[in-house]
Design goal:
Elements: E1 2-5, H1 10-15, H2 17-26, E2 32-36, H3 41-47, E3 52-55, E4 71-74, H4 81-87, E5 93-95, H5 116-126, E6 151-154, H6 166-178, E7 183-185, H7 192-202, H8 216-224, E8 228-232, H9 235-242, E9 247-251, H10 256-259, E10 268-272, H11 288-291, H12 295-316
Parallel strand pairs: 1-2, 1-4, 2-3, 4-5, 6-7, 6-8, 8-9, 9-10
Length: 317
């Protein structure tokens, strides 16, 4: 059995897809087990290649269901907690970044400024397992009851500093709707009230507010068949990358060089007013680098990604 630990969120799992597929290719005859939060199960199914998910929240004592793996791979962090958790499964071999504090002296050195996709590909490459950083595509689910062709605006984030001001989302929604976009607003149940205020300010109908009404599987289908996604630096942006859905991602305080869509894909645009304000933001509301992004700039980026889609379709035809 090969055990991989990634007990984090949607974007974290999506950025680990190339590494998980590299492990699958390197060990075709062994079960690949992923330790990750149970609520990610619908997305794990869309990654493909993972034989079993063991629901894992946090980095405490390892679940006995993890068993004793032949190889354990730390795709979670630099340690020491994650290293020690995996070491507790008594693996035949631990693949991880070096962590003297955890007693792990093998592996490459951690780089703080590295893109999250490259981080895990480099780890495996150090151990002789090649990984393709561009292998980010997710399996496309059946649309089910999810509407298709929508423009998805996702104003929320678990981190307040990563939330573009609601008034600007309302202005953007109003402009896109006037251009013929069928706009919907997504988010968690806790973000539903904000989404409702945005919809009201933009003049959208009440049924445009999907925040709190979509589970992860339905959200993935919504993004997979969307016309466009506009969001902050959060999990929905990575779903758009995984489905090659045109997207505009608003960054602040973290640079897109660490979490942005892959380069060379003109249907994805990352906006960041880098250099304005400190990454350590203790104020209220959006980080200064995010607040510096104007509605007109986002509308221009929307035009650019939609133009890129039209060009690619013309070339394909």
């Amino acid at each position: 059995m090969i055990l991989a630990l990634r007990a984090l969120g949607v974007g974290d799992l999506a950025t680990a897809v190339p590494a998980l597929r590299a492990l699958r290719a390197a060990h075709p005859g062994r079960d690949l087990v992923l330790a990750a939060p149970g609520w990610l199960a619908p997305l794990v199914d869309l990654v493909g290649g993972v034989d079993r998910l063991v629901p894992t929240d946090g980095l405490g004592r390892p679940d006995p269901a993890l068993g004793t793996p032949r190889v354990a791979v730390n795709l979670h962090g630099r340690g020491p907690e994650s290293h020690r958790m995996l070491a507790g499964t008594r693996p035949g071999r631990l693949l991880a970044y070096t962590s003297p504090e955890a007693g792990h002296h093998d592996g490459p050195e951690w780089r703080d400024d590295e893109h999250e996709v490259d981080r895990w590909c480099r780890l495996l490459d150090w151990y002789g397992i090649p990984a393709d950083r561009t292998d980010l595509d997710l399996r496309r689910p059946a649309p089910g009851g999810a509407p298709t062709g929508m423009t998805v605006l996702h104003p929320g984030s678990k981190i307040p500093a990563k939330r573009w001001p609601p008034g600007r989302f309302a202005a953007l929604a109003r402009e896109l709707a006037a251009r013929g976009h069928r706009v919907v607003l997504t988010g968690s149940p806790d973000e539903r009230a904000t989404a409702q205020r945005i919809a009201e300010a933009a003049g959208l109908p009440a049924d445009a507010v999907l925040a709190g009404r979509t589970d992860l599987g339905r959200l993935a289908a919504l993004v997979a068949y969307a016309r466009l996604v506009v969001s902050g630096d959060t999990g929905v942006a990575h779903l758009a990358t995984g489905y090659r859905t045109p997207s505009v991602v608003l960054f602040g305080p973290v640079s897109p060089a660490r979490w942005g869509p892959p380069p060379g894909r003109p249907r994805h645009r990352a906006l960041w007013a880098g250099g304005q304000g400190s990454p350590r933001w203790e104020g209220v509301g959006s980080h200064p680098t995010l607040a510096a992004i104007g509605v007109d700039e986002v509308v221009t980026a929307v035009d650019e990604v939609e133009r890129a889609v039209r060009v690619s379709r013309a070339v394909a035809a």
